[in-house]
Specification:
- With about 525 residues, the chain is mainly α.
- Helix content is about 75%, strand content about 0%.
- The chain has 25 helices and no strands.
C-alpha cells in the first residue's frame, strides 16, 4: 500500500505532541499507534494490536535492541557503583577545585566529551553524569550541559578514526562496494570522508564558540540566565528522564571517596575495548584493518561495561563499603535506574520501524530527487539525510537508508566525489538527530545530564540549525570546488558571523561569572 505524503504523519504527530506536551513517551506511542492504524486500513483497534505485535515486541526482541538495552543497563550498574564508591564524586571534586567559573565548567565538559570519542552512548551517559555536579555547582543549566554532551558525542564518533560508528558505516560502505563491483578499501574510504564531514566539524566549533565566547542566544540564553540568577539548574516542573533509584545509592557519611574508585573501572572499560574489537573481528587470523572493519562493536562495548562494573563492585567490597549481598541490591538498582530510557528507546525504535513500513524515507527521497546537478547533490543528500533522521530519530537508520542511495549515485557521476556524497549523508544524519526529540542519542544525553528532554531539544535546536546552515554552505562550496579546506573555511566564517548576529539579536544578558562562582 502506498501512503505518499501521509507516510509523514506518524513521525510528525509524534514530534508535535512531544513538543506540545513536553512528554516524549505518550507522543512516541501515539506515533506508533497511528502508523500501525494506517497499515490496517485505519482500524484503530487493529492498530493498537499491531503496535505491540508488529513493532514494539519485535523491536525489544531484536538482537541489536537487546544489546543496546543490556548495555544501557550495565552502564547504569557501573554508574551506580561509581556513585556508591564515590569515584565520580572524587573526580568531580578534583575538577571543581580547579574550575572556578561557569565557562571553566563548560570547557571541561567539552574537552571531556572530545576525549571519549569511541562510542556515543557511552559518551552521552558518562560525560553528563560525571560533570553534572561540577556544572551544578557553577550554576550552569542542565540544558547547557545536555547540549555540550549531545553536540560532542556523535560528531566525535564520526570524526575519530576508530569508533562504533566507524564500524557500522564501514559495513554499509563495504556492502555497496560489493554491489558496485568495486574493490576499494571501506576503511580508507571512511577516513577520506572525515575532512568533508562538515556538520560534525562545525557542530564542535559551535560548542567551542558558545562555551568560550559566551555567545548564548535563544531559549538557551534564558535557561542560563535562570541558572545564574536563581541557582535553579532545571526549570520548575521539569522532568529529567532519570530514575529515583540512583538517589538511593548514597555514599557512606564517614567514607572519603577516592579517585581510583572511578579511574580504575574506567581504565578497564576503555582498555578492554580495543582488544575486544580486534578479537570479535577475527584478529590475528585476519589482518588488523579487516579485523577492525568486521568487529562487533556493540558486543565489545557491552562486555567491557560488564567487566568494568564487576571491577567497581569488588573495589567497593574491598573498601568495606558494602557486603556482597548489598552489592547485588546496588546492581539491581543500577539496572532499574535506566527504566525510563529503556521505554523511550523502545518506542523510538518502534516508530522508526513504522516509518520504514510506511515508506516515509522512500517518499522523501523520491520527492527530493528532482535535480541532477552534481554541485547541488551533496546539499540534497544532506537535507534528505537530515529529514529522515529527524522524522525517524535514528542516525544509524538514516545511514542504512541513504548510503545505498548516495554511493551508487556518486559512482554514476564522474563529477561527484564518493567521499563528499558519503559525508553529506553522515552529516545530515547527525544534524537531523540533534534536532529530533525522538533520537536515541538525544534521549541519552538528556538522561546522562538529568535534563528535561524536551527542554534539551528546544534549547539545542537553534544551535544545531546554525551549525546546519553553515554545513549546507560548506557542502555547496564542496560540490562546486571539491576542496575540503576551502569548504570548511567558508563554513566556519559563516558560522562565526551567524552566531555573532544571533547573539546580538536573540541574546539575553547573563550575569558575570564572578556572581555564579
Amino acid at each position: 500500500m502506498e501512503f505518499g505524503i501521509l507516510s509523514l504523519l506518524p513521525p510528525v504527530i509524534a514530534i508535535v505532541l512531544a513538543l506540545v506536551t513536553r512528554n516524549v513517551i505518550p507522543a512516541l506511542f501515539a506515533g506508533v499507534w497511528l502508523g500501525a492504524t494506517m497499515m490496517y486500513d485505519w482500524n484503530p483497534l487493529m492498530g493498537l494490536y499491531a503496535s505491540f505485535s508488529d513493532f514494539i515486541i519485535p523491536n525489544v526482541g531484536s538482537e541489536w535492541s537487546a544489546t543496546v538495552i543490556i548495555y544501557c543497563g550495565l552502564f547504569g550498574v557501573l554508574i551506580a557503583f561509581l556513585q556508591k564508591t564515590g569515584g565520580a564524586h572524587a573526580i568531580a571534586h578534583a575538577i571543581s577545585r580547579k574550575v572556578k567559573t561557569p565557562r571553566g565548567a563548560q570547557g571541561s565538559t567539552f574537552l571531556f566529551g572530545i576525549i571519549i570519542f569511541f562510542e556515543d552512548y557511552f559518551n552521552a551517559l558518562t560525560v553528563g553524569s560525571v560533570m553534572r555536579s561540577v556544572t551544578d555547582k557553577m550554576r550552569v543549566s542542565r540544558e547547557k550541559l545536555a547540549y555540550i554532551v549531545d553536540s560532542t558525542s556523535a560528531p566525535m564518533c564520526l570524526l575519530a578514526p576508530v569508533s562504533t560508528w566507524v564500524v557500522f558505516v564501514m559495513g554499509l560502505i563495504g556492502a555497496q562496494y560489493v554491489e558496485l563491483g568495486m574493490s576499494e578499501s571501506e576503511y580508507m574510504t571512511y577516513i577520506f570522508t572525515i575532512p568533508f564531514n562538515f556538520y560534525a566539524i562545525l557542530a564542535l566549533a559551535m560548542v567551542a564558540i558558545i562555551v568560550f565566547m559566551k555567545w548564548d542566544f535563544g531559549p538557551m540564553a534564558k535557561a542560563e540566565n535562570r541558572a545564574r540568577t536563581t541557582g535553579e539548574v532545571i526549570r520548575e516542573g521539569a522532568e529529567p528522564p532519570s530514575d529515583d533509584e540512583m538517589d538511593q545509592v548514597a555514599i557512606a557519611e564517614d567514607f572519603t571517596p577516592k579517585k581510583r574508585s572511578m579511574i580504575i573501572p574506567i581504565v578497564v572499560l576503555v582498555g578492554l575495548i580495543p582488544p575486544l574489537f580486534l578479537w570479535t573481528g577475527g584478529y590475528p587470523e585476519k589482518d588488523f584493518i579487516t579485523a577492525v572493519g568486521e568487529a562487533d562493536g556493540a558486543t565489545s562495548i557491552l562486555i567491557a561495561a560488564f567487566v568494568a562494573g564487576i571491577v567497581a563492585l569488588f573495589m567497593g567490597i574491598q573498601q568495606k563499603l558494602y557486603s556482597f549481598k548489598e552489592a547485588m541490591s546496588i546492581y539491581v538498582s543500577g539496572i532499574k535506574s535506566m527504566t525510563i530510557v529503556y521505554i523511550i528507546l523502545t518506542l523510538a525504535w518502534s516508530i522508526g520501524s513504522v516509518t520504514s513500513e510506511l515508506g516515509t524515507a522512500a517518499y522523501i527521497v523520491e520527492f527530493a530527487q528532482q535535480t541532477t546537478s552534481p554541485a547541488i547533490i551533496p546539499v540534497l543528500l544532506f537535507f534528505i539525510g537530515a529529514i529522515v533522521a529527524f522524522t525517524t530519530g535514528t542516525s544509524y537508520g538514516t545511514f542504512a537508508i541513504m548510503i545505498p542511495i548516495a554511493m551508487p549515485l556518486a559512482a554514476s557521476m564522474d563529477s561527484l566525489s564518493m567521499y563528499i556524497a558519503i559525508a553529506a549523508v553522515l552529516s545530515g544524519g547527525i544534524f537531523g538527530d540533534h534536532c529530533s526529540p525522538i533520537s536515541d542519542t538525544t534521549i541519552l544525553s538528556s538522561a546522562g545530564s538529568a535534563s528535561d528532554h524536551i527542554d534539551h531539544v528546544n534549547t539545542q535546536i537553534p544551535y544545531a540549525v546554525t551549525a546546519g546552515i553553515s554545513g549546507v554552505i560548506s557542502f555547496l562550496v564542496a560540490g562546486i570546488s571539491g576542496s575540503a579546506v576551502l569548504s570548511i573555511v567558508v563554513g566556519a566564517v559563516s558560522l562565526v558571523i551567524m552566531a555573532f548576529l544571533l547573539r546580538k539579536m536573540w541574546g539575553q544578558e547573563i550575569p558575570n561569572e564572578e556572581i555564579a562562582a
